[in-house]
Amino acid sequence: MTFHALHSGWHLTHVAGDVPETFAETARSSIPATVPGVVHTDLLAAGLIPDPYVDDNESALAWIGHSDWAYETTFAWSDDDEAVHDLVAHGLDTVARVILNGRELGRTVNQHRTYRWRLGELLREGDNILRVEFSSPIAYAREREAVLGERPHSYVHPFNAIRKSACNFGWDWGPAVVTAGIWRDIGIESWSEVRIVAVRPVIGVDDDPRRVDVHVELEWQALDADAAGTGSREIVAEVAGERAAVSVAHGEARATLSLRAADAELWWPRGYGDQPLYDLRVAVGEVETGRRIGFRSVTLDVEADEDGSPFALAVNGKPVYVKGANWIPEDTFFPRVTRERLAERFDDAVDANMNLLRVWGGGIYESEDFYDLADERGILVWQDFLLACAAYSEDAELWDEFAAEARDNVARLTGRASLVIWNGGNENIWGWVDWNWRSRLRGATWGDGYYQRLFPEIVAELAPTTPYSPGSPYGFSSYVHPNDPAHGTTHIWDVWNQVDYDVYRTYRPRFVSEFGFQGPPAWSTLFSVVHDEPADPYGPLMLVHQKAQDGNGKLERGLGDHIAAPRTIEDWHWATQLNQARAVRFGIEHFRSLHPLNQGAIVWQLNDCWPVISWAAVDGHGHRKPLWHALRAVYADRFVTIQPREDGLAVVLHNDTDAAWDAALSLRRIGFDGAVRADESATVSIEPRKAVTLPLPQAVATAADASAEVVLAELSTGERALWYFAEDPGLALEPDGFEAMAVSTDAGYEVRITARSLLKDLVLQVDRVDRAARVDRGLVTLLPGESEAFTITAPAGIDPQAFTAPGIIRSAGDLNPARVDA
């Protein structure tokens, strides 16, 4: 069996639709095309359109999504002695007609499926012409909405009437650059006698993490009616030193081989153990395929208890406290996402102490590279089915497409050690209950059949050892509100949209699968695409890169009493970045302090798909925002926080490791000048995967001067937590209370900062010196006399003193009212 990729010689033409005058001359011309790719990236590479991410080019290029396009290539073919030839398309975006040598092979209406067509006599010796015609996805979606019936959905376009990535039509963090193209591999697969259609290893059978049932699906070459005996073939499966074999007769389509890898090491999520992976080999005669698997079992506890209903994951029988982030597509133009780029984001997740990524339902089923990296790095994957923020028709044409794409992707991903949850969709059940859908639907189907019947049946059939959740949020009972924090998973969005972030403390959630707060990207990222003159948070080009409804208004209101209102664009950028980090950290510290009642949090969101003001921790150019540094701190395996309780302040310590945490605990109330006002000490011992709460002594917890004192809880093992008695505008913070020295090093540059007075939330905005610059830490608070070295990677030849220039070193003191009034 061979695969002949058809990735070269492609050209793109505009077929139909209005075009701008600047494009009219080339509208019918042949444009070189890259496959895999999409129309936008081909036009961009040809110099025919500007960068869609810059200024308001997004709206200027909207015509592309309203147009019809065609891709065409000529390829040479010669007999390879195989009997059967199939054209296989792993991803067509989206409404396509596939034509070989003038004859239609088939049509597609689903971006999320693999398609296969038998070529037969259409494939000829010598040159062959393959043409793929794409209709406007916007026009198609509107056409199908008219047939299926209008149903509630977010944003402008009816993405719920077409099986295409929802966020490609625009979201509150993403642009509406509606794509078309051959976005994944396409080629000819040739084979004889028998083809291995799929290998589906189901791991953890009977709760035994070392037990795997290998399900093999076969397709056989049709034989002539007078062909002599069909005989049989042996299927062999080998993994981790174990072997199983079974005989199948010609034409038998399925077989199952059971193995128990007694000597295999178990696969664990990050922070719980190693991630050994084993090569699984399956062969039918000389036809062979393989994949890597890890041995582990997964369970999800949602059974009612005295506090409601938990949402508690366990791997290999061990409970896992989830420290996660939601994942969106890494680029609006999906084919541009390489393994190297994904690896950078996985580095961001691992370095921030995360152990789970949720692949959100408005995006895509990710590439093999994504799941490979998750398996290798020990990052658990929560995988949504691709439905989000909308009601969906259950008419046959959509039902059949959902069934096909679900079967395709569940079968593809079964056996991934990292994939631990299949989830029915995002916010759709909540939408039906709370968003006035019922009155608008008037009894029409809205998607419940997918969440409660189709998807769980497919998961039970194809991935029976992987837990399933009907939706997020979800309370796991028909009699519980889907977003009740006491039951299952909850999304907390009144914070950000309506109320101050201190409202997080009013929640006692079992598991938070979405919550977050916005902030701008790095300075260099933002102003590489926004060119208002003068720069202004409400400039028209800035607002193109702020997709949330009243987003900048919410950013300003979100400062509340926490940070003084900024008066310059530089201070607006710093204040809103800082407040984003503070808000999310505030929430997670509270959630973790509730352990074991709370079993985890998944922040919205890790990454961006373009340069934008958003909830992301890492911006569209790969810069780690202050939020990322906050996440690294609050997701630490050993974590300490000071929290208010009914009887006063308390220290909460969460030990998310397999070893006991024994340490000396120092509790001090310190003046901003460094003088110790009160001092207490204790010895603590926290069992593995447990938390303890200790009341603060009154002398430490009571301020003599709320404007100039801080409580410090510090462990002999290095962890620390701080508590302030007032918000920043009421604190006597000095904007310039430090000394900075910078030098070049073999690795790049180093900046050492020494505090003369308390230096709160110190950040180096090194990208303002060079957009390629990165710094190893941020949001560092230094007590008087303390010193911290920051390591900077940046191009050679920069004057080190540039990293200590005004505006590069920022702290909370920069934003205090005295400085602003000055």
Description:
This protein has 822 residues and is of the alpha+beta class. Helix content is 20%, strand content 31%. It has a six-stranded antiparallel sheet, with helices on one face. It has a six-stranded parallel sheet with strand order 27-26-25-24-23-30, with helices on one face. The radius of gyration is 29 Å and the shape is globular. The relative contact order is 0.08.
**What low-confidence regions span 5 or more consecutive residues with pLDDT below 50?**
none
Largest sheet strand order: 3-2-4-10-7-8
Query: Main sheet, how many strands, which sense, barrel?
Result: 6 strands, antiparallel
Shape: globular
Distance between termini? 75 Å
DSSP strand (E) fraction? Answer: 25-35%
Which range best describes the helical content: under 10%, 10-25%, 25-40%, 40-55%, 55-70% or over 70%?
A: 10-25%
Helix tally equals: 18
Structural class: alpha+beta
Query: Got a strand count?
Result: 44
Mean pLDDT: 96
Whole-angstrom Rg? 29 Å
